[in-house]
Amino acid sequence: LCHTHTHTALAYSVISPSTRRCYTLAMAAVLRPLGRQLGHQRQAVVSVAPRLMSHWAAVPEGPPDAILGLTEAYNKDDHPDKVNLGVGAYRDDKGKPFVLPVIKAAEGRIVSADLNKEYAGITGVPDFGRLTAELIFGQDSDVAALTASTQTISGTGALRVAAAFLERFHSSKEIYVPTPTWGNHIPVFKDSGLEVKHYKYYDAETCGLDFEGMVADLKAIADGSAVCLHACAHNPTGVDPTPEQWAELADLFESKNLFPFFDCAYQGFASGDFDRDAQAIRLFVSKGLRPLVTQSFAKNMGLYGERAGALHVTCSSPEETSAVLSQIKILIRPMYSNPPVHGARIVKEVLSDSQLRKEWEGQVKAMADRINSMRAALVSELEAAGSTKDWSHITSQIGMFCYTGISPEQVARMIEEFHVYMTKDGRISVAGLNSNNVAHVAKALHAVSS
């Protein structure tokens, strides 16, 4: 057709206008049916072309996050007496989020300094690792100088990097966690390639520690195993070993060469005393053990959204410290390259200034004291409501959370009948209690537990 059309075009240019009109009409009569035929074929091709399958069609719907789902339900509830005891964040006595005055002061200094927004190094803001290690191990501790420390994306980021380090370099690819433990421990460890195993911890009958079961389980595991321990204010139960029990555990870890993996999310926030809340870690170090510690400043500095945390791997020599830190850098680089700077600068400012640090310690103690006062108020209001049950575990537990000891069915009643929102295992955030709602919560607890 193209060849014929070329020759026809040359002839067309030399014929007369009348002949040209006749030729045009004839060509139109010939080509019109051909055009219709091609059009039908094109439509047929379009109609039978297969629809491309989505690459994500087989992705299943994941379960909702338990805490976020609880908050969503609470937000939709229009009852005037509703109470949210599920959120793991501090609230003041008016039920509002609280920014520590010392944090505002430190942040003001940082803003006034007009610092740039350049990347931090892989291990974070300069001096952050040293200052945070000294907070954990003590300013005069020799081990702080032999610790491979890095800034991380809060405590969760520290756990993720630590777990990846264990998976790559520890002799065992297993880690033992208490039953129960913080809900995020298990997925973080599993996603890092570790096999998660459990040891006994909580005694539902006493709402306290099953120390005998804990010791028996740890004695039975293989020598050299990695064991996750909550440094203080166990989440979710609020149940901690006594100093004497920690000493017995340290001896057991030493005799079996168990590897202590401490998660420290509440230093200072548990008892109001930073040294007391670090006593378990320091005890293990004094025994010659070399623990790994993950550290968060979400609770004790209120830097929830700033994601400021640290990972500390204690070592036995400067050469070992250097090697461990080099491998931590190699793990972090493809994971998130480097951590955010703003929250870490606040932490550094507070820890490096003696006046700010003194103010911070006082303000953290005030938060811890308010939580402890709410524990006592809840027990008092339960007694005033007519309850004769033993609620002493509420005041013997420590930290932000309390395991009330009520069943999932009783929790459902708390939510449906009394609009008090809590996780189905009976855990409450004591920080969510205040002088305006504690009586209502006590009456609800008494009603469902009678």
Kindly describe this structure:
The structure is a single chain. This protein is an alpha/beta fold and 450 residues long. It contains 17 helices and 13 strands. The chain has helices at 2-12, 17-48, 66-76, 101-112, 128-137, 154-169, 185-191, 211-220, 243-256, 274-277, 279-286, 318-336, 342-352, 354-384, 392-396, 408-418, 438-449; strands at residues 83-84, 147-153, 174-179, 195-200, 202-203, 208-209, 226-230, 259-264, 292-296, 308-314, 401-403, 420-421, 427-429. Strands 2-10-9-8-7-3-4 form a seven-stranded mixed beta sheet, sandwiched between helices. Strands 1-12 form a two-stranded parallel sheet. The longest helix is centred in the first third of the chain and has 32 residues, at 17-48. It is globular.
List key phrases describing it:
single chain, 450 residues, alpha/beta, seven-stranded mixed β-sheet, two-stranded parallel sheet, 17 helices, 13 strands, disordered N terminus
How many helices does DSSP assign? 17
Q: Roughly how many Å is the radius of gyration? A: 33 Å
Order of strands, main sheet, comes to 2-10-9-8-7-3-4
Strand content: 5-15%
Spatial shape: globular
Report the mean per-residue pLDDT as an integer: 90
Oligomer: single chain
The residue fraction in helices comes out at 40-55%
Measured between the Cα atoms of the first and last residue, the distance is 95 Å
